[in-house]
Prior knowledge:
The protein is an alpha/beta fold. Helices cover 31% and strands 26% of the residues. The chain has 13 helices and 17 strands. 35% of the residues are buried.
Amino acid sequence: MILEKENSAVIQKTLGKYYRRKETSRTTSRVHVTDQNTDDFLQKLITEAKDLGSSDIHIEIYEEKCRVRIRIDGQLIERYTIEKEDYPGLINKIKINANLDIAEKRLPQDGRIFFTQDDDKFDIRVSVLPSLYGEKAVLRLLSNDATDINIDALGFTPGELEDYLQSVRKPNGIVLISGPTGSGKTTTLYATLKILNEEKSNILTIEDPIEYTLDGINQVQLKESIGLTFASALKTFMRQDPDVIMLGEIRDGETAQMAIRAALTGHLVLSTIHTNSAWGTISRLTDMGVPSYLLANTMNISIAQRLVRLLCPDCSAEEPFDPVMYPKGYDPGKPLSVHRVARGCEHCYYTGYKGRKALYEVIPIDREFADLIKSNIFEIDTQMKERDISTLAENAFALFAEGTTTLEEVYPLLLSK
């Protein structure tokens, strides 16, 4: 009897992991592995990934096996294994749909699939990379409708949201959001554009790729192969009578200089940049050659952002907490006796997590911070404490202490304290 119960638990866990169900209908959305030889396997795979809220599909080949993984809540999960003899046919189907050269197997290729099924339409960015045993394909699902994005639900604290909305309501200046790839920066920007999207405003964006679509906004896809770069698009935007300009990313000094020029001439510029903290954005821009006095005059607000997975409310459990689990040298100043840990159940597909939340570090650039920028002062811990501005580490610990997420999820952020 005990053995039967153990076997049943293993079966249920495996079913939950590999045959996920749509949360809305609780009906099973699956593609049987035996379907991989049919012509519609690729379409079923894309449909399943979309239904499960996946952002990427990874199709990979190794010496002994081929597999398909999908990324959900920032984590890759293996979904299928594919027979090696069927793998080249699947890659060729992807290439054909993305208008790529099926005969070219030595060089990387990038393409796009315009996927349509019933009333569902979205774009898929395709990247094919030659690897040791064959070609690896990654499909990124894009162009989700931005109408359901609500800035109030992203993760800002009330004080942070007030500072942020005040900065984006200014008629000119620069709003910068920093963070690694996949930290939700674009979602925050589009939640902001929804607020600014009014009949009286001309909003232009240059993106790579266009991840969301929103009526009333003029969106441009970056095409560096023909010279349409962030910097060249910005030059053209200035002749398009813009009120708000959104740059997908500030990657180089030329783009940074153009963004500063746009802000100085009376435009509101929104963009992202790769730095570890909100104040680190300032040093990154000065390294790119932007004079500090121009930054002080144009910066409205600097934000750092990360995404953290949330515990499944149906299966998380409470356990005693040992402070030795903290990163070495970390002292939150708040003792904890217990903490919540991930367990895994059928509701979270045995991952222990369900959904994600954004954490922010928000620094509004007022006169005092502007003076610090002009003076090239990069240590602002005292000013942050005086203003009661929470760092990413502090917000991460607060989320952990209230039992919303685990120490494993916030551990990298605590290291940055």
